């Protein structure tokens, strides 16, 4: 076979054009991740704080940075970070969702070649310290209490991670309506009774017995999208979702509530959120099943006779995952 004759030498621009037509970029973007930002509201002697870890991701209208090694359109990621801090100084921060919307809209108005902005914000769980009167401290005068007590501190805070509030805002030039998600992450719950798991598939692979009463531990992650974010109270909605999950997991403080599966618990939670918050269009919930196995005391009956129902061994891995998404 003869070699293919050499073609006429093309210009560099023509070569790049031909190469760009041979391949298709399906997705692209870049940005700054893990930006830490604290905002302090100094209203007289009473201060409040909000701390976030956030990301700014952009999609540009051209691909010349990829195809031609031309960086002329790139807004560098340090500039993105600086822009975020300056907007926080100029406008303050009322909450993560509203601030993310502000930043996303500014990117599109400032830079005509930006086609899409994706903002992600995670809130750090700072809470105001509660103190008690010196007369109630007893012998230890330096003790600070963080539970229910008499007074909230004006300017001192404690990091208490009960659950994390996060949000995502996606705004494109083609669609004037932003996509806004809010979520809960890392809500760890446990109850020692009122949970069962029975009557599941029984075949040659099954080793797990029916569990009519078990200790149930879960970590809840949830996110929801708004059909209307102009009239919604983001902070109140976040608290409502959290309260609904707690209610369906724990029930009445004296009697509790029977749980037959995580599947049913999360379905009831999602259903109630959609009933209570009309601005939520759909909600996703994920629950892990973190196992606590009873320590086997049968080989030690001389030392600890009888059945063991008190000493449990946490089993971190493997764990089970259950998830559901509900819409109207």
| Mean pLDDT level | 90
Strand order of the largest sheet: 1-2-3-6-7-8-9-10
- Tally of structural domains: 2
Low-confidence stretches: 1-12, 141-147
Ends: how far apart? Answer: 66 Å
Oligomeric status of the shown chains? single chain
For the sheet with most strands, the description reads: 8 strands, antiparallel
Rough outline: globular
Please, what is the CATH homologous superfamily of the largest domain?
Answer: Urate Oxidase
Q: Return the string of H and E elements.
A: HEEHHHEEEEEEHHEE
Total of DSSP H or I helical runs spanning 4+ residues: 6
Q: Total number of β-strand segments? A: 10
Helices and strands in order:
Blueprint: H1 12-22, E1 30-43, E2 46-60, H2 64-67, H3 77-91, H4 96-110, E3 114-123, E4 126-131, E5 151-159, E6 164-172, E7 179-191, E8 216-226, H5 234-250, H6 262-276, E9 280-294, E10 312-327
Antiparallel strand pairs: 1-2, 2-3, 3-6, 4-5, 6-7, 7-8, 8-9, 9-10
Helix pairs in contact: 5-6
